[in-house]
Amino acid sequence: MPAAGRAGSLTFKSLISRIVFLHIVAVAMVAIFLPLVLFWLLNSEIDQLHRDAMRAQAEVLAERIVAQPDGTLTFNLPDSLKGLYSDAYGRYQFDIRDADGRLLFSSHRRSAATAPSRFSDTVSGASVTRDVAGKTVRIQVAEDLAHRDVIIDDIVSNFFRRVGWITVPILLVLLAIDIIIFRRAIAPLWKASQEASNIGPARTDIRLPTEQIPREIVPLVTAVNQALDRLEAGFRVQRQFTADAAHQLRTPLAILRTRIETLGDGAERQALHADIEAMSRIVAQLLEIAELDTLVLDPREAADLRAVCAEVVGSIAPFAIAQRKDIALKGTDAPVLIHGNSEMLQRAVFNLAENAIKFTAEGTTVEVEVGEDGSVRVRDSGPGIAEAERELIFQRFWRADRRRSDGAGLGLSIVRAVADDHVATVAVQNLPGGGAEFTLRFRLADKVTMGEELARQ
Length: 457
Fold this sequence. Notes:
Blueprint: H1 3-11, H2 15-62, E1 65-67, E2 73-75, H3 79-82, E3 92-98, E4 103-106, E5 126-132, E6 135-143, H4 150-157, H5 159-162, H6 167-185, H7 187-196, H8 218-261, H9 267-293, E7 302-304, H10 305-322, E8 326-331, E9 337-339, H11 342-359, E10 365-370, E11 375-379, H12 411-421, E12 425-430, E13 436-441, H13 447-456
Parallel strand pairs: 8-10
Antiparallel strand pairs: 1-2, 3-4, 3-6, 5-6, 7-9, 10-11, 11-13, 12-13
């Protein structure tokens, strides 16, 4: 597709941009044609006023025609009007003719026999016909357009400069008002889009609101909600299957563990016991994943991150010591209240600590550091994480070494799921002296939530 075509298609992806663009085109057309129409109307009104004024003058002149006893007609123009129709003034003219077109009286001196009608082709004048003593006379009055009234001249000639420009700011104000109206009209759509952004694997229960949605958009919103219903049903079946499978595996594993305990001591018994423990760990992690998929956090819920980490370090310390390794809690000693569920936070920190103990070298210490900014850093002295694997390690069932049987690649995926549910971030980097550092960053609880949490404690 040519660049111009792509630019054109991108210009109108926004509904409000499309409406505003079309409205600007309409406003531009109106801004051009409206002054022209007003100018034409003004000229028409001026012409009509001019004709009415001329007709009124003709009627005044008709009243000055008088029939004498001998049947002749006389015309007595008063002194107040003589100057108006004088040659010196040269603005107004009149002719009075009989029914045959002969000139009886005129504002200009001329021969009645040879004078043609001065106003036969004049469109700036008017005429009236009167019956005087049984004789029909026609009075014609006209104005020389070269000497038109100065005020009318100014109005017509300066219309665009003095009046016509007013239409432009008026139309711009109307455009601004229309944009505000458009934005208010589509505000329900923005609200629906914000609501849709909260929909995810853990919040499949959210539906787009249909209140105040424009009638034309309601079918689309309804179709989306119906699609979400079907997706939620599919997610529910998948989660239920995972939870049921994990629960069903727990019982056979417990029975198998009991039977292995009855075997005599030996390498085979220890190997079977290790396999059972690994399988039990996988089943427990599957149950954790199923619970996380259905977790809905209370926005008002808060947890003490320092206390969570202290409990995790205390519970996992025997596991570290058994492998000739150590674990230490560092950082602030004060409570660090964050938005979150303490049980889920424990699972995330526990998985990070367990993963660090697994890969750190013997005789080294895993550090769990709690920051006042709501962060948790877990450091080890292991081989570190390759740059290409830093995103892959958080995927379910991903393992760098497929031949290893001491895990299923679920621990770090649980950490990522807990972080996503808490609108937190998880990152990993290699340390300069060797090893890796995993960092979880949570949102600090506000003062109101902190007060409520401290009151419960």
